[in-house]
Amino acid sequence: MISYEEEKVGKKAAEMLKNSLHTQIGQKFGFYEHYHGKRKKDRQPLKKTTSVERLNIWTGNQGDRITFLNAIVISMGRQGYIQHYGVNRIRKGGKRTRKTPKHTTYNFEAHYFRMKATPFIDEAVAQSGAVPYILREISRIRGTRLLKLTGRFLADYDFALDMK
C-alpha cells in the first residue's frame, strides 16, 4: 500500500499559495495586467513560485510506503525577495555597454540604493488560507493513520497472545 495523501494536500496548498502570490504581486506592484492579461498569450506567470519539495518517505515492515509532508517551498527570483525585505546599501560604480538600439558605453558612480520593504509574501501566505488547510488535512490524515496502525498493532498483539 502506498499512501500519497499528504503529497496531494501539499500540492493543493502550494497551488493556493501560488495563486495568492500572483494576486498580491498584481495588486501591490501594479503587474496585474502583466500576470492576468486579457489574452492568454499576454499572461506571464511566475516561474516555479511554490513547490512541494520536502517529502519524507517511510517504508513500514509490511511494505507500506507513506509520504510525510515536511515543507512547502516558496522560490522565486531574487527581485521578489528584494521587494519583500527592502534594500539599504551602496551600489558600486562601474561601466556599462549597451548595444541596442545603438552602441553606447557609459560610466556610473557609486550611489545609495534604498528600497522600502513591502511584505507581500507574508500577506499572500495569510490570504491564501493554505496554513489552516494544511493543519486541518494533515492532522486528519495522520490521526486516521495512527488509528489504523494502532488497530493493526493490537490485532497482531491479540493474535500473538492467542497463540501462547
Helix-strand sequence: EHHEEHEEEEHH
End-to-end C-alpha gap:
30 Å
Parts with pLDDT < 50 across at least 5 consecutive residues: none
- The order of strands across the largest sheet is 1-3-2
Total beta strands? 7
Largest sheet composition: 3 strands, mixed
- Taking all residues together, what is the mean pLDDT? 78
Structural class based on helices, strands and sheet pairing? alpha+beta
Portion of residues in beta strands equals 25-35%
- Binned, the helix content reads 40-55%
- Give the number of helices: 5
Integer tally of domains: 1
The shape, in one word, is elongated
Output the radius of gyration.
25 Å
Can you offer a commentary on this structure?
This protein is α+β, with helices and mostly antiparallel strands. It has one domain. It has 5 helices and 7 strands; from the N terminus they run E-H-H-E-E-H-E-E-E-E-H-H. A 3-stranded mixed sheet has the order 1-3-2. The protein has a two-stranded antiparallel sheet with strand order 4-7.
Summary tags:
164 residues, alpha+beta, 3-stranded mixed beta sheet
List the helices and strands and how they pair.
Layout lengths: L1 E2 L1 H25 L2 H4 L14 E10 L5 E10 L3 H8 L1 E5 L2 E5 L5 E5 L2 E5 L4 H9 L1 H34 L1
Parallel strand pairs: 1-3
Antiparallel strand pairs: 2-3, 4-7, 5-6
Helix pairs in contact: 1-4, 1-5
